[in-house]
Write a structure and sequence with these properties.
The protein is of the alpha+beta class. Helix content is 54%, strand content 9%. The chain contains 9 helices and 4 strands. The chain binds glutathione.
């Protein structure tokens, strides 16, 4: 808790979208106050909250007069407004490639990821195991891209960046779903381990 004119983060602790913002706030050492939003009580759909985010979702960040939503856009804002340390490559081409990787991790992985997530929310006996197995296989194939992108680099875009912050909440959930660790994805496994050693990531686990 920071008080005064600190950044405000409207947060639900287990939300992956909030977690990726918290990683960036911590990496930049930015003090912030948490405003809890109880998603189970549907507080995110109340008129006062909808004035901040018309989509009725967390996270919302308030920084002075600026009210923002959409976690990936919030992270870009934080990196531009508070550039120390910089969390995007300097080179324009590399920056664009970093964004492609974020888009890939968020959007191209989404269909099989959501299939497993929804099945896991059901009672075990209600689950469609064939759908889970098919989605796991699809994810294993899609995740090979990260194996290649990592190569010998410690992080997805070389140095630690917004790409790592954006995707780590999804990857820790892939562990929870039993998709990872995967012996076919050793570099991804080492990256997750490296990520979990960072205090910013430890704080969201
Ligand atoms: N694209 C948005 C997604 C935000 C989102 O889906 N937040 C979830 C929590 S992880 C939420 O607030 N869900 C409540 C609801 O949709 O009513 C972002 O990146 O911030």
């Amino acid at each position: 808790m920071a008080g005064g004119n600190a950044i405000k983060l409207y947060d639900f602790p287990s939300s992956p979208n909030c977690q990726r913002v918290k990683v960036v706030l911590a990496e930049k050492n930015l003090p912030y106050d948490i405003v809890p939003v109880d998603l189970k009580q549907k507080e995110q759909k109340k008129p006062d909250f909808l004035k901040l985010n018309p989509y009725g979702k967390v996270p919302v960040v308030i920084d002075g007069a600026t009210v923002l939503y959409e976690s990936l856009i919030i992270n870009e804002y934080l990196d531009e407004k508070y550039p120390d340390p910089p969390l995007m490559p300097k080179d324009h081409g590399k920056r664009a490639k970093a964004r492609i990787l974020i888009d890939y991790g968020m959007n191209h992985l989404d269909t099989p990821y959501q299939t497993i997530r929804k099945e896991m929310m059901k009672e075990e006996k209600e689950r469609d195991q064939a759908a889970i197995d098919k989605a796991k296989q699809e994810l294993e194939n899609l995740l090979q891209r990260f194996e290649r992108e990592l190569g010998d680099q410690p992080y997805l875009a070389g140095d630690f960046s917004l790409v790592d912050a954006a995707l780590i909440p999804r990857f820790t959930r892939l562990e929870g779903m039993g998709v990872l660790p995967d012996p076919a994805l050793p570099r991804v496994g080492a990256w997750i381990k490296r990520m979990k050693e960072r205090p910013s990531v430890r704080a969201i686990l």
